[in-house]
Amino acid sequence: MSFKMRMVLHEVINGLGFGLFLAIQGVFFLQKGLELWQIGLVFAAIGGATALFELPFGAVADIHGRLKVFRISVIVRLLATALALLSPGFAGLLVAAVLWGLSQALNSGSIDAWVVERVKDMGEEARLQSYIGSFQGAMAAGMTLGAILGGYLPAVMPETHWFVPTGWNLLALMLLGALNLALMPVLFPEGEVPTPPQDRETLARQLKSGIGFALGNRTLRAILVLGVFLGLAMASLDAYWQPRLVEIAGKPTYAAFGWITAGYFAMAILGAVLIGPLAEWANVSARVQVMLLPLLLAGVLFALSRQGAFWPYVGAYLSFMLVFSMINPPVETLLNRETPDEIRSTMQSLLSLVLTLGGAVSMLLFAPV
């Protein structure tokens, strides 16, 4: 199996798990007996743990190995999911949420950095954006399929006294995690060359080196600022697109929300896959794409805010997701071209962190508005 096909399979497996959970996450916590304010705390715990540990764990991946850290992230996610599945109350779910956040922090940038190094080793760095777009499209395809399957799984599986109906989705998520661990020797046979112990940086020096390099590099500074604004826009849209649709359409069915969400992932596939060939055809560099696409995104977001009917609103929403998904491949391409191998995971985690911070600012400052 070629390197590209192995990474596509890896991304599809991960996407299936995310989709299975996203399809029922709110309903699962309701079936567990949580009140709305408790659900908010659970999601806050996931985001808080991710933001707190993301950058340090990215540095750990640079120091001790990306595949090793990724393997730990899958194990922690398995533990978190099992705890959430079997926990009888709020306290256990809160602990599971923290573990989920730790898993996300461990996963952030680990495989992405490993993939970039393999592409460079193959002499394919000029096609890096095409590779990134294909892999992100595969992730979105897995999420689309997982979201659709996740909507039907609780209805077709038998009831059990061991867990709530939507618990079947979490069980499926655990099986996918176990499959990912079992397939690691097949998916990542190249392994990685660990940094000799005598050459390893301490965690503090690794963080200082990564942050200092980012702040001293004009391109990376611009990418991080852009990341804050992208996180701000995306968090606002995630929080309010469904309430706005209810205002417009009265009371759409759950099926309508489900299929619109599937359309969201379909646009994420299309945008990530299309941007590379379009950029090559138009001879537009990644740097120019990163300047133009946010302007187009702002225009689509403004158009979305002006819609007052169901189908125009849905069309504008899906258009937003199409353009948003086009931004990430050129951003990742620039980020990885500017970043030395020894701080690559640190930089991936730093970008993810500013996206998270942008979302936090959005929720804290815009909620009163």
Provide tags for this entry.
mainly alpha; 369 residues; 0% strand; single chain; 14 helices
Mean pLDDT: 83
Determine the N-to-C terminus distance: 52 Å
Radius of gyration: 20 Å
Helix/strand order, N-terminal first: HHHHHHHHHHHHHH
Q: Structural class, please?
A: mainly alpha
Main sheet specs: none
The gist of it:
By secondary structure, this protein is mainly α.
Could you outline the blueprint of secondary structure elements for this entry?
Layout lengths: L2 H20 L2 H7 L4 H29 L1 H21 L3 H18 L2 H12 L6 H29 L10 H21 L15 H14 L1 H32 L4 H29 L3 H20 L4 H29 L5 H23 L3
Please, could you describe this protein's structure?
The protein is mainly α and 369 residues long. Helix content is 82%, strand content 0%. Helix 1 (3-22) runs antiparallel to helix 8 (167-187) and helix 7 packs across helix 13. The chain is globular, with a radius of gyration of 20 Å. The model has no long low-confidence stretch (mean pLDDT 83).
